Amino acid sequence: SPSIALPASSFIELKNISGNPVQLRNWEISNGSTTAVIKKDYLLAAAGFLILCPSSAEDAYRNFGPALGITGFPSLNNDAGVIILMAEGGRVIHAVQYDKSWYRNELKAGGGWSLEMIDPGNPCSGSSNWTASNQATGGTPGKQNSVNAENPDLSGPDLLRSITPDSLHLIALFSEPLDSSTAADVLHYTLS
């Protein structure tokens, strides 16, 4: 806010990079304090895009691509916040904690411009993979992001510290998020 040329309402764009269609019914979107449930059947095609928005903005966003209005859509803070996408049953599919410094442009951080992910193939790299949209309308809902480019993570996570809360558990804190499926495999760790 204020809107440049997009509807004057928050939105979240989903892109299915899984290679398979995904049924979104009963998935949840949250800002960390408010959670809304997708109550309609919606099959998101492989490589497909979907604009999630408040129900009141669904018709306006359909002008840009496939849109699904959600009752109780969580408010998104312009300065900083968190967005969490969960599958049915509460499994986190993706989460991002954003900040307006990610815009890298003071004018665009002032409002009306979308934050866009640079490389969808590298979704867990945080601020280094997000920036302000370059699109004159203020964003690219429903289609490839205007800042789309390869942005690989070329450095592995560093172990910052570990804590042993008891004789059976070890808590490890790394310098960046880990891929959850890789991190869950105990064969990827050695202790001496």
Quaternary organisation: single chain
> Approximately how much beta-strand content do the residues carry?
25-35%
In whole angstroms, how far apart are the ends?
54 Å
Please, what is the average pLDDT? 93
Beta-strand segment tally = 13
Structural class by sheet pairing and helices = mainly beta
The strand order across the widest sheet is 4-3-8-9
Which radius of gyration do the C-alpha atoms yield? 18 Å
Low-confidence runs of at least 5 consecutive residues:
none
- Helix % is under 10%
Order of helices and strands: EEEEEEHEEEHEEEEH
The total count of helices amounts to 3
Shape: globular
What can be said about the biggest beta sheet?
4 strands, antiparallel
Descriptive terms for the model:
single chain, about 190 residues, mainly beta, 4-stranded antiparallel β-sheet, 3-stranded mixed β-sheet, about 5% helix, about 30% strand
Question: Can you offer a commentary on this structure?
Answer:
Helix content is 6%, strand content 28%. The protein contains three helices and 13 strands, in the order ββββββαβββαββββα. The radius of gyration is 18 Å and the shape is globular.
Summarize, please.
This protein has helices at 58-61, 106-109, 180-183; strands at residues 12-15, 22-23, 28-30, 35-37, 43-44, 49-54, 67-70, 80-86, 92-99, 115-117, 130-132, 159-163, 171-174. With 192 residues, the protein is mainly beta.
